[in-house]
């Protein structure tokens, strides 16, 4: 069992959680993820490490409440425990010698973008962060980003309720056009990553994306996470999660993410009946 | 007491082999409960009575771990079941498991003298009878391996499949402290995530593992060696004096045909893991879903393919096809499983090779296959299938399960500098399992490629003895 040592609500449906896991905390690097199970009947789900302390023996992740497992997770408090936490898994994000980097976080992807931006800075890169959400209330980690020594922080909302109105691709395109960046890193919903990849490709700027296919074990044993990159099948969990965005087949990724959509709704509906809160 | 002749010698029974009581195929194909029910005491005695207690028992040499089969059958005849269990446990820590899944028809039973003239003694079923007898006792009364005097040495066992478990058990006999590191959340390896409940109930695997824990084996789950820990770190920081690697060959192979990433195409590993380990058949009571196809095509001809096909049937498929590129005679699956699959209505499409998976809106709608003919024998001695030109046709299906084998998972080996592997990624060892790193041993599927439970156990045990020698020499 892994004791929960920290919990903070970042927005209506986004939470930050810390877990006592000293062995894992010693190993984590930015861009890696964990698999967790809430309880004995639980599903294994992947979440990216958002922060960690080897000295204090904890790891943190930020999750958005989207279905049954993340819903269950949101109800746990400090003092409760998770059945399983496994990691760190996946290849760490490549941060060395990239130069001027735009780190783009969309929605809950912002949670992953934050430690990546931090690691990019630590590796000596110049970092511009673009943080986007549908609306002001869904923006997360703005204060944390503001505290980083960024070249610039650009905030974007679909409805213009905070920062620039529009999509993250607009400031990204401007940065590319101005020749202000050497590399882009986009993390968020598949559709956002697809358009970031397209925007950068058209402008000749390399773009790394952090993919989020469905996973079961997270260690290369099942192939649930397979994605097509440059015409080749790769396993998201061991070959990724980071890939060259210009080569990823996003249509396939989006299709594969929907495999269990109906069943997930069913599980969630069953669960909502028992659960007092509304999702 | 068995009948004796005038000279006082026992006269073995000439009765035909005692059939295994099994559940009705129609009924059993609707749930995940065990298919073969096991011998009653009476049936076990009747079957044991067929053994002629040869002066030169050939069966023993047929067993990969040389269980004293003649002796355990003699114990059954004496109704000394606990004694029988003890005989098996000398060589094999998991009789209830092996009695169920070992290919006895190719091993001990093929070597039994009676098989020359007729049907061999049902050694596997008798083994299972004793294994189940043992598990039915409460923990104190079960046959327990003698734990050796504390040696003060610590061994890390990586992977909790049959190889790792057998190695751990044996190391305790020598008095070494043992910690098993398992990457999944439950121990047992393929016994837990791969072989389905209806063939090997998980309660049995669990009971065997509890027994090992009772002898002092510590099991740490959620520990991926190569990620959570490195092997070097286990030895240098965590104080392990030696290590055994039994991580299996868990990386699924796909066909490499177009359409293979469509929704509805599974590796057998994913399909079986969802159902066995994550209990997706209880969805939504268990949280992990599995796509329940109406028409399922399973590609392959081994035990894994049979398990996947029979699992699909139990999930409610109307039709399940088994698509195999050679003929039924060449299928590597156990005869018994092939027979069970047929009884349950699995449709065999032999001499068919998949060319493409067809789909609409991202979902599988069918699979194009070519007919094959058998040509000259290949290096495996089996006749190699060759394509019949122009014989493509489509099998309509909404799910495809690919069960054409597995490879070595490079996760641990690539994170372990100095560990020599073959060109295909399997760990290189000597006969005792010693690897290129002093004090590090390996065995099971990660050395041999996908094989059998008993071979993995044998390798684990052999390595444990070598580890014991290594620890003595290095002290
Ligand atoms: C490498 C990786 C890193 C991720 N990091 C984060 C993160 O830091 N924060 C965050 O909020 N989310 C992250 N995700 C997504 C997160 O895993 C899913 O939101 C979560 O699994 C949803 O589970 P659920 O039961 O609550 O919802 P469900 O109702 O089960 O599913 C909602 C949607 O989530 C996705 N999903 C469901 N099950 C899985 C699964 N086993 N594996 C992957 N995706 C699944 C599907 O697209 C599905 O349609 C990451 C995914 C991956 C692959
Ligand atoms: C569906 C199926 C049916 C089968 N049916 C039969 C049968 O009827 N009869 C028979 O004899 N054989 C059968 N086999 C084959 C048999 O199960 C295997 O040969 C045997 O389990 C191999 O044992 P092992 O200990 O080497 O590896 P495994 O059983 O594969 O166990 C390896 C363990 O190591 C863990 N692991 C992997 N990497 C790491 C890591 N880096 N760190 C920590 N842990 C790790 C894995 O999670 C796993 O638990 C079947 C196999 C399958 C898949
Ligand atoms: S070879 Fe057959 S008959 Fe002879 S001892 Fe072994 S099981 Fe009995
Ligand atoms: S999640 Fe199973 S192989 Fe990647």
What would a concise description of this structure say?
The complex is a heterodimer of chains A (279) and B (475). In chain A, 28% of the residues lie in helices and 32% in strands.
Structural features:
heterodimer; A: 279 residues; alpha/beta; 7-stranded antiparallel sheet; 7-stranded mixed sheet; 9 helices; 28% helix; 32% strand; B: 475 residues; Fumarate Reductase Iron-sulfur Protein, Chain B, domain 2; FAD/NAD(P)-binding domain; 3 domains; 5-stranded parallel sheet; 19 helices; binds flavin-adenine dinucleotide; binds iron/sulfur cluster; binds FE2/S2 (inorganic) cluster
Give the SSE layout.
The complex is a heterodimer of chains A (279) and B (475).
Chain A: E1 2-11, E2 14-20, H1 22-25, E3 33-37, E4 45-53, E5 58-64, H2 68-74, E6 81-82, E7 84-89, E8 100-106, H3 109-122, E9 126-133, H4 142-146, E10 152-157, E11 164-165, H5 169-177, E12 183-187, H6 190-202, E13 207-210, E14 226-229, E15 232-235, H7 236-239, E16 242-244, H8 250-257, H9 261-274
Parallel strand pairs in A: 8-9, 8-12, 9-10, 10-11, 12-13
Antiparallel strand pairs in A: 1-2, 1-6, 2-5, 3-4, 3-7, 4-5, 13-16, 14-15
Helix pairs in contact in A: 5-6
Chain B: H1 25-28, H2 41-48, H3 59-62, H4 69-77, H5 81-89, H6 95-101, H7 108-111, H8 114-117, H9 123-136, E1 154-158, H10 162-173, E2 177-181, H11 190-193, H12 202-214, E3 218-220, H13 231-236, E4 242-245, E5 251-252, E6 265-267, H14 268-277, E7 295-299, H15 303-314, E8 319-324, H16 335-343, E9 347-350, E10 352-360, E11 363-377, E12 383-387, E13 393-396, E14 399-402, E15 406-407, H17 410-414, E16 440-442, H18 445-448, H19 453-473
Helix pairs in contact in B: 2-9, 4-5, 4-9, 5-9, 6-9, 10-19, 14-15
One flavin-adenine dinucleotide binds at residues 33, 43, 45-48, 61-64, 66-70, 108, 111-112, 212-215, 241, 257, 261, 264, 268 of chain A.
